[in-house]
Write a structure and sequence with these properties.
alpha+beta, seven-stranded mixed beta sheet, 26% strand
């Protein structure tokens, strides 16, 4: 699929999303205003948005896969995974996650994070390659957000908006990948002390390993790779949950560990 947007249009849309990010405001869906926007166009817009953030002093620390589970795909009516960039400004200690100061319409999701020891460069990356390249696995929360009004997104909207990224918290408990049965591992999520949701690794494209391999192979089309030392968020295992300041969520993955996020 080729690009259709002119470079000036790409810059304008990326700058619009950047301004919305910083001002904590929303914009009308890009796809209603640029109905011919392709996925390639959307990734160009996303790169422009990232460039503005890097110019502000942010630093890329990893990448994320989005819209991997059927529950999330159904909720958002977006049925193809996508990816975005993680920066150091997005990572927070779970003791105080500043959604009130940083985000617009946040939703939390529990997943597994991968810490890479070696590069993964597609095409042809397999689940076994992911295991071999991974130093550790940890439970995490990604708090997604959208600069698109009322989450009225199509695929190109979320792609352009850095895969609807917001903030993330990675738990202190970390295990070697060989200790995890990724398809059957289960996450149990509580909110404000009450059970909220459960899911298994199979909810995300059959296994979080498949998600990470998909991302490495998808990035090959852009001459990009998953780099050694990067953090990779592999996609939600449970439905998205709206959160507000004062909420507390915990995700426990038996055999892996737990992560708690206190939202402020």
């Amino acid at each position: 699929m080729d690009a259709t947007l002119a470079p000036d249009d790409v810059r304008a849309l990326g700058d619009e999303l950047y301004a919305a990010l910083r001002a904590r405001t929303t914009v009308a869906p890009l796809t209603t205003r640029r109905p011919g926007m392709t996925t390639v166009d959307a990734y160009h817009v996303s790169r422009r948005l990232l460039g503005r953030r890097l110019a502000d002093g942010e630093r890329v620390v990893g990448k994320k896969i989005g819209v991997t589970s059927v529950a999330v795909q159904t909720m958002l009516d977006v049925h193809t995974p996508d990816f975005g960039w993680l920066t150091d400004r997005m990572q927070h200690d779970g003791a105080a996650v500043p959604i009130g100061a940083e985000l617009i319409q946040p939703r939390a999701e529990a997943e597994l994070a991968f810490g890479l020891a070696r590069e993964l460069r597609g095409p042809g990356v397999t689940a076994a390659d992911v295991v071999a390249a991974t130093a550790w696995v940890a439970p995490c929360f990604e708090i997604v957000d959208s600069r698109i009004a009322a989450w009225k997104i199509r695929y190109q909207d979320t792609v352009a908006d850095n895969a609807s990224s917001g903030l993330f918290v990675i738990g202190a408990d970390r295990v070697a990948p060989g200790a995890v049965d990724f398809a059957t591992c289960e996450v149990e999520v509580t909110k404000n002390g009450a059970p909220l949701s459960r899911g298994t690794g199979a909810e995300a494209m059959g296994s979080p390993l498949a998600c990470v391999a998909w991302l490495a192979n998808q990035l090959a089309a852009f001459d990009l790779a998953l780099e050694a030392g990067e953090l990779i968020l592999s996609g939600s295992l449970v439905p998205l949950e709206p959160v507000v300041p004062g909420d507390v969520m915990t995700a426990h993955v038996p055999g892996v560990g737990s992560v708690t996020a206190r939202f402020t």
